[in-house]
Amino acid sequence: MLELRDVAVTYRSASGDVPAVRGVSLGLAQGEALGLAGESGSGKSTLAMALLRLLPREAEVSGRILLDGEDVREMNWGRLRAVRWASASIVFQGAQHALNPVRRIGDQIAEPLLVHGMATPAQARRKAAELLERVGLPAWRARGYSHELSGGQRQRVMIAMALACSPRLIIADEPTTALDVMIQAQVLDLVRSLIVEDATSLIMISHDLSVLAAMCDRLAVMYAGRVVEAGPSREVFAAARHPYSRALAAAFPTVGDPESRLRPRGLGGDPPDPAHPPTGCSFHPRCPVAVPACAGADVELWPAGDRHTAACVHVRTGQAGPETAAVHDPLPEATP
Amino acid sequence: MSLLEARDVHVEFTARGRRTRAVDGVNLSIGEGEIVALVGESGCGKTTLARTLLGLERPGAGSVRYGGAPLAYTSRALRAHRREVQLVLQDPTGSLNPRHTVYEAVAEGPRIHRLPGERDRVAGALSRAGLRPPERFFERLPHELSGGQRQRVVIAGALALEPRLLIADEPVASLDASVRGEILTLLLRLREELGLSALVVTHDLGLAWNIADRVAVMYLGRIVETGPVEQVLTAPAHPYTQALLSVLPGSPSRVVLSGEPPDATRVPGGCRFHPRCQVLAGGAAAQAGVEASCRSGPLAVLPATAAHQAACHYTAR
Questions:
Q1: Cβ atoms of A219 and A213 closer than 8 Å
Q2: A151 and A194, same domain (yes or no)
Q3: Residue B17's pLDDT is what?
Q4: Is there a single domain that holds both residue A119 and residue A180?
Q5: What average pLDDT is seen over chain A?
Q6: What is the CATH number of the domain that holds B263?
Q7: pTM score, two decimals?
Q8: Where a domain ends, among A166, A188, A207?
Q9: Domain boundary residue, one of A140, A166, A192
Q10: DSSP character at residue A242
């Protein structure tokens, strides 16, 4: 239902161009959940915003973004408005602060339905109450205000809003960052059950590979504006072929794993400056298995298994990198 | 030997006529060269307890002891205390003045405490925090540094006072995944090289597994389970700890507690966890004949020993 072909986003500014996304191609089938992993500056949030043309004017987007075969970049304003909310909606990081403090919660949930002419005011009110119950909040909350809710409850309201027009695609950008573990588990279970019930597609963005692996069918790992590895979640998380994916998976240890006890693992160096990505493989300055050729070599996504690709010279030459073996055991169970 | 200790500490706040029992009877001790993780959800009182150990809050009852002696709440004694026990805040961007150079930021503490040899002290602290060569960082401003480097500057600011204990509140929560391991490794190295103790306040059990010797799990103002990390996190005894571990990605069976963390203005009677307890709700407590105790029987405050222990009627039966 969604296809990205060679999508690039460049922020134009007086001090120079910043290439935030540098040629990303991805596909998403109806009902599929895709996890987009990466750190700040990797371009993952920019890419998500580009999908619904939510970027500021100084961001220049190229490539093709096909939503049900129709290029989002070529839609006129009216069509775009119809697509946002109704076909695809987005839940932002820290979105609980996006609720209007002086409007009733029910009115805010009903607003997209009314704007899109999908319901009469009476129907919209009923639908808002239904949606609140669906996300596990009592219907009487519709008459309340956002300050009466906790952070986790506000995030549920944002999810209810995103669901209002029954979109076929939900984009969730760090939906549980800043929430407590138990609330995070509640919200993730909720999102999971909603997408399973309605066969809604999901793109979830996070830097926590373990959360994405438990939620999504497929994972794409981004680094310096590019996808460096994509494949089935369990493979990318437990048997990553790209050294950056391996480092990201090891950053959040499995409690009980003796390998990580009193041995936190990370990467030396710092994430690259998006304005000046390194030459060759962007990851080579921090890569534990880099060879001299990496600084100049052009990397692309090479086959690394069934529906699995990785942009690493070690994958192309078929040589196993020094730690290609699974570094992360036990395998995460996909949440039912 | 205990370096910093909370003895039956209670801290209460009163706002709009409502009494919040933020810390409601806690014993906790941090030994020399020991790293202890204090784990819990927001609102459980872990930050208030950390502030009390720093001398920023005065306990309503109980005492804070440093090096065996009770903390005196005079400005002179507190100043000495805060040199020995240093706070590292969670958001390095928020805790650094954007217009102060790295040198100014690190030198601030030594100036307040009128310590000699400022330049050497700043250089030493920066290189111990992994910013080498230190002179290269002196004139940098926070916005010129990466998130990981800023957190190192914050840690260097603490090290410049040659403390014996760091209290770190979510030291890696605002950092990128790949940088997180580096900062945690730094805390372990400081312990090894300087014998520095640490209390790490966090909601992240993976972090406790990565660096702590002991862990204390806090719920609604009390420590409900404590002990060596290997024991508490691989064989949790308290239903609350069991639930926290079960929702980590990859755990086989999840116990998702419903509802929000409860309110410290209304602490339930009996075991304070009983309204959300899955063992009670599932009927196992009734079968074991402890249901009445769970609902109304008081639980003793756990002592500050190193052994694995849990405040639970069901596990104690």
A1: yes
A2: no
A3: 82
A4: no
A5: 87
A6: 3.40.50.300
A7: 0.88
A8: A166
A9: A166
A10: S
| B231: closest CA of chain A, how far (Å) | 10
Amino acid identity for residue B240 in this structure: Y
- Structural domain count of chain A: 2
What is the average per-residue pLDDT within B287-295? 95
Residues of chain B contacting A256 with CB distance shorter than 8 Å: 209, 233-234
- H or E element that contains B275: none
Q: Quote the strand ranges of chain A, DSSP E.
A: 2-11, 18-28, 33-37, 59-67, 70-71, 88-91, 169-173, 201-206, 218-223, 226-232, 302-305, 308-310
Q: Is the dihedral of CA B129, B130, B131, B135 positive or negative?
A: positive
User: Distance of CA B150 to CAs A264, A285, B63, B179, B239, Å?
Assistant: 19, 20, 34, 11, 38
Find the domain containing A142 and state its range.
97-166
pLDDT at A335 over 80: no
| Residues A43 and A182 both lie in one domain | yes
Residues A226-269: tens digit of each pLDDT: 999 999 999 999 999 999 999 999 888 889 999 999 999 888 77
* Nearest CB to A252 within list B206, B229, B230: B206
State the pLDDT at residue A95: 62
Partner-chain contact A262 B188, CB within 8 Å: yes
CB–CB of B166/B33 below 8 Å? no
Task: Return d(Cα A152, Cα B217) in angstroms, integer.
Answer: 21
Q: Which of residues 310-329 of A touch B (CB under 8 A)?
A: none
d(CA B26, CA B35): 18
Domain check: are A245 and A319 in the same one?
yes
Question: How far away is chain A from the Cα of B220, in angstroms, using its nearest Cα?
Answer: 14
Its domain, for residue B33, covers 2-316
Do the Cβ atoms of B206 and A253 come closer than 8 Å?
Answer: yes
